[in-house]
Amino acid sequence: MTIPIHELAALGTATCWATTGIIASDAIRALGAFHFNLLRQGFVTIILAGVVLATGSLTLPGPEGIALLALSGIVGILLGDTFNFAAVGRLGPRKAGAVFALNAPMAALLGWLILGERLGWQAGLGIVATISGVALAILGRPAEGAHRLEMLHGRFRTGVMFGLCAAFGQAAGALVARPYMAGGLDPYLGSLLRVGASGLAMGIVATLPFAPRTPSVWPRGALILTAATALIGLFLGMTLFLFALQGSQTGIIATLSATSPVIILPLLWLRTGQRPSAKSWTGAALAVLGLALIFTR
Predict the structure, then answer these.
(1) What whole-number distance in Å separates Cα of residue 128 and Cα of residue 105?
(2) What is the spatial distance between Cα 104 and Cα 125, in angstroms, rounded to a whole number?
(3) String of b and e for 264-287 (b: at least 16 CB within 10 Å)?
(4) Which positions ≥6 away from 281 have C-beta within 8 Å?
(5) DSSP 3-state assignment of 248?
(6) Where are the alpha helices (DSSP H) in the chain?
(7) Which of 80, 113, 207, 225 could form a disulfide with 170 if both were Cys (CB 3.0 to 4.6 A apart)?
(8) In angstroms, what is the C-alpha Rg of the chain?
């Protein structure tokens, strides 16, 4: 049996993003979604540049490829991540994940319409089961007695809107990057081009009059958490995601990476001491069934 290494990499991405969601909330609320994302991108750009120089992975895809990968980074990381962190800051990591998971069907639809990626019935059924399980797993906890990581900050409707924008940004960014990653582009170089372009664009936006207000205080704890999320979610998670796109279809990789809200259930249990509900575990089981259908297609 062939080991589905690219699909496993996508699950690795989901694990990285689930961990990021747990540890990011306090830093996001202290620094704001924009400056939190700006700091982590600047940090990871420096690390990725060092890795690319050390490994000699400098075979660039050409001017058009560089431009499109930069666009992928701006759409998927600048817009997608900033909106996602804004949703996490308002809804908490579990509820924000419920909305962000919609990037999977968005990516599958865009991959079919634009790239001509066709999914067999088993893969399609697996995607439906996985997304349904993710939604059930996340929405399964009652609001009473919620931990602070589960509490609503601001308007629920605004948080949902941010989550939908994040989902679309992630799906569109993956769609743009997919042809170049499938062509064999080094994942570290691909990450550098995407993260670097996004960080540069955010740096320019930060100098403009309408940019989000710079925090008056930069708590040390928030900066440490920001660096940790950069290493786990952006450096490792995004590199695994681009590697996954090298060998599997956009919709399948988006679906597998969208299982982070299921992976987050035991992590939240450990972090908050609140056991997930039976409905949440049922959703997790349904998501696992969907994953099995995808892996054995």
Answers:
(1) 8
(2) 13
(3) bbebbeeeeeeebeeebbebbebb
(4) 137, 140, 265
(5) coil
(6) 5-31, 33-55, 63-73, 80-91, 93-100, 103-110, 121-138, 156-182, 187-206, 220-229, 238-245, 250-257, 260-272, 278-295
(7) 80
(8) 18
Q: Helix axis angle, 278-295 relative to 121-138, nearest 10°?
A: 160
Report residue 38 as tokens.
Answer: 């700006």
CA 147 – CA 143 distance, rounded (Å):
9
CA 203 to chain centre: 21
Per-residue pLDDT tens listing for the chain (297 residues):
566 888 889 889 989 988 887 788 788 888 888 898 899 999 999 999 999 998 877 778 888 989 999 999 999 888 888 898 888 878 777 677 777 777 777 887 788 788 787 777 777 787 788 778 777 766 655 555 555 555 656 677 888 899 889 989 988 998 898 888 888 888 899 999 999 999 999 999 989 888 888 888 888 989 999 999 999 988 999 889 889 988 888 878 887 887 777 777 777 777 666 676 777 778 777 877 776 776 665
Match 């431009």 to its residue by tokens: 67
CA distance readout (Å), 241 to 78, 142, 234 = 16, 32, 10
